[in-house]
Amino acid sequence: MSSNYLDIIRPGINTTFQDKGRDHLYHIGIPFSGAMDNRNYLIANKLVNNNLDSSVIEFAYQGPHIKYSGEKINFAVTGDVIFSIKKKDTEIEGNCYESYQIENGDEINIISTNKSVYGYLAIGGEFDLKFQWNSCSINTKANIGSNDGKKLDVGQRINLKKINSNKDIKKTSYINTKIENIRVIKGTNFDYFSEEGKKIFYEKEFTVSKLSDRMGMRLEGPKIDNIVNTNIKSEGLIKGVIQVPADGNPIIMLSDHGTIGGYPKIGVVASVDYDRLVQMSPGSKVKFKEINLSDAETLFKLYEMETQNLISQI
Amino acid sequence: MIKNISNLGDAALYCDFGNEVNKSINSQVIKYFKTIKKKKFEGINNLTPSYNKLIISYDLKKTNFKEVKNYVENINAEDSIDTNSKKLEIPVCCHENFSMDIKRLEEILKLSREKILENFLNKEYFCYMTGFIAGMPFLGDLDENMQAQRLETPRVKVPKGSVALTEQFVNIYTFESPGGWNILGNTPLDVFDSSKEDKPNLINPGDTVIFKEITLDQYKNYNE
After folding, report:
1. Pairing with B223, which of A60, A294, B46, B85 sits 20 to 30 Å away (CA)?
2. Does A202 contact B at CB distance below 8 Å?
């Protein structure tokens, strides 16, 4: 038995283990999964001296309330998150992007994300998890990954296999920027839509629907009219693809998406904007802005360099 | 052959093999899929073959559209013909406990239950692709008089193992999921098993499947 463990007092709404995700499996119907907001996932691991591809706890909206038992250990929370740390007689408000040391009996209470969706809890060590296809990432729809592919539940105990010997406290001053315009590259069925429909897509505002999850983000707003066919022969999808079914409301494929689909693709979200897209909570307004392939590639390179800089400075 | 290559976003190649759905086009797709999969090009992280398209997605940190396109255009897909395709028999129980849409099919197809089963069972179906949900095979082709559209309102929950029809295709729901296909029966076989990491799918693109009818008793005793 492990002597260092976490007990889940309250699991939160959609709390799972995630890491870098799993690849080379689309052809059998298994999506990438992995942390939705990759940048915040990497920063969380760096703040607790973990390898960057270590497993973390991802939560959406309301996070978990956890009691820790064992030797001293570090943890950090990233995202735009409100949480508190309860030690014997005191309870303090925690700051994101700062690691804290906790000891036997301390509690972490992740109350909620703030005007965003996902947050990350990294523990300085290694969870004792079952991996599938080299990843712990939980896909609750297919029940794949650690924890039998199910979200974390109340009363559950999570053992730690290892604790980091490096217990340096770290801090960074990252601010999650919000974007109003999501940049998109024209989709392979762009010409299925009427001139009016195309104009609506690039000029009007859409609202993120409550029916959004790790599989997809549904949008509501003016209908996008299809003039060719509301179905195509089913074909592969990737994350970021924007499909428009017959009802005219766009759906953006996210990390746990179905691997094939039969609705026309009006656009694909540029990789540079994916981390920020997934953080848009229900009710947020979205506008799409067209971008060409070469600009999208350049902007992603810059974004990736910025991520590497952020991490190397921690 | 690939008719056209374009980009799907900034991290995938969209390889178009034609508009029709037939075995010969699909065999080309599968040939390219198997060749590229075997060669392990640095940066390609997923391949999704479908009826007549192949999506090749890549890690934009490692490569880009131009490099992958150039690689795919110069690949020789002929020299890697894989003869690994299997012929599989899938037991299916079409008892009324399972055939949730038989009445609907009788009405749409204007055929009796007996005739529908006769047309469906003991025939060879070709696996065009797997996916949507993990391990779900898309099999074809059904006779023309067996083709029905999807339900107008999809079910929120289709039971695991459901064998269902739409247009010229048959599929098997590998686990409980939403879905709008016409359910004809249920198989007790595990068509997807995530504990077998090297071979989670029973049915793979290029395989041939024959459905054999079993009784309700045989169904119940199948996994004992």
Report:
1. B85
2. no
User: Contact B192/A29, CB-based, under 8 Å?
Assistant: yes
Q: Against a cut of 0.90, is the pTM above it? A: yes
- Report the residue of chain B nearest A22, measured CA to CA: B45
- Tokens linked to B182: 């016409």
Q: How far is CA A83 from CA A61, A68, A80, A93, B43, in A?
A: 12, 15, 10, 6, 38
Please report, for residues A4, A19, A56, A308, the alpha-carbon distance to residue A52 in angstroms, rounded to integers and kept in the order given: 22, 9, 10, 11
CB distance A292 to A264 below 8 Å: no
Q: 3-class SS at A15?
A: coil
Q: Which of A93, A277, A95 is nearest to A184 (CA)?
A: A277
Chain centroid to CA A163: 25
Residue in chain A lying closest to B63 (CA): A297
Candidates A52, A148, A260, A266: best to mutate against B (most CBs of B within 10 A) is A260
B30-69 residue pLDDT tens: 999 989 998 889 999 999 999 999 999 999 999 999 999 9
| Cα–Cα distance, B47 to A314 (Å, whole number) | 36
Strands of the sheet containing A118-123, edge to edge, are A16-18, A56-60, A118-123, A73-78, A99-102
Taking a C-beta distance cutoff of 8 angstroms, is the pair A145, A132 a contact?
yes
Element holding A300 (H helix, E strand):
helix A293-312
Q: What ipTM does this complex have?
A: 0.94
Q: Report the candidate in A1, A106, A9, A144 with the shortest Cα–Cα distance to residue A64.
A: A9
d(CA A24, CA B38): 11
